[in-house]
Design a protein that fits this description.
The complex is a heterodimer of chains A (about 260) and B (about 50).
Chain A lengths: L1 H20 L6 H10 L1 H4 L3 H26 L1 H8 L5 H15 L13 H11 L4 H25 L1 H14 L1 H32 L3 H9 L5 E4 L3 H7 L1 E2 L4 E2 L5 H4 L9 E4 L2
Parallel strand pairs in A: 1-3, 1-4
Helix pairs in contact in A: 1-2, 1-4, 2-8, 4-7, 4-8, 5-6, 5-7, 6-10, 9-10
Chain B lengths: L1 H6 L5 E3 L3 H7 L5 E2 L9 H7 L1
Classes of the chains: A mainly alpha (about 260), B alpha+beta (about 50).
Amino acid sequence: MLHILQVYRYWLIFGLVLAENLGLPLPSFPVLLLAASVSRNLHFSMAGLLLVSLLGALTGDMVWYVLGRLRGRPILRTLCSLTLNPDSCVSRTENIFVRHGLKSLLLAKFVPGLNTIGPPLAGMLKIPAHKFALYDLAGISVWASSALALGVIFRTQVEWLLEWLQDFGKLGALILVVLIAGWLLLKWVERRQFYKLLEKSRIAPPELKDLLARGESVVIVDLRSNLSYQTEGTKIPGAIHIPPKEFEARYLEIPPGRPVVMYCT
Amino acid sequence: MARLLNSKGYRDVRPLLGGLDGWLELGYPAEPLPAAAALVPLSAQSSAK
């Protein structure tokens, strides 16, 4: 690892960060941390490391931003196709973004899932390119500088670990491979949890229809006001109508222990 | 309101994305209101008879 870092230097960091931001599952955070730890021996400058990570990540994100802008929803759908329910994945990520706006980009690099979906979503929502680049750069800076800072703080521990691995020779290489595999697994689990969280917050119409078709015991609550309820003349089959004004007094009509779906107009 | 229900011990509460309009736009089934609740204009009632 160190040898590769020594040969390719900044290009390695740039390539890793770029590839990860294009969507490949690569461990650029730990490698960046490692580079910061050994910066004295390998003559890396902190500013240089920060600069190449900024360039790499921004390039990758801009590619997705442009794709999102040109192709819109289908791109998001492709990204979301890893999940069980692409439709609701798209709409729910949109929700997060609409609620928190560009600020969600600041911490997006730390949220698996959001880091891949943020840029194409910003493109799809036609956020101006310079604004997106600014917030994205800020987010990348937070991410990259925390890796660098951790590397410097734990310099002695990292050096100790490297020596320890070297003592093991081939076994050391194996341990390293296991560590990297473990890291990737962790990220994969985190990403899945992110998608699960998205799945939970809201329900998309196709999903509800599926539930009903499967005969699940969903309670549907119609929250329209009396007026709009009566003028529309229809409701979702089986829905209980409770106008918002009476909700606090009448919520007990909703049978407990069953999944509840609420809707208004 | 979903939060109110959550605090009352209902665990799985989700708002429907897009509301009733989103549901109808997709051409999903809807049912007419129970007769008592339907507010049908008088003129429409008499002409129907």
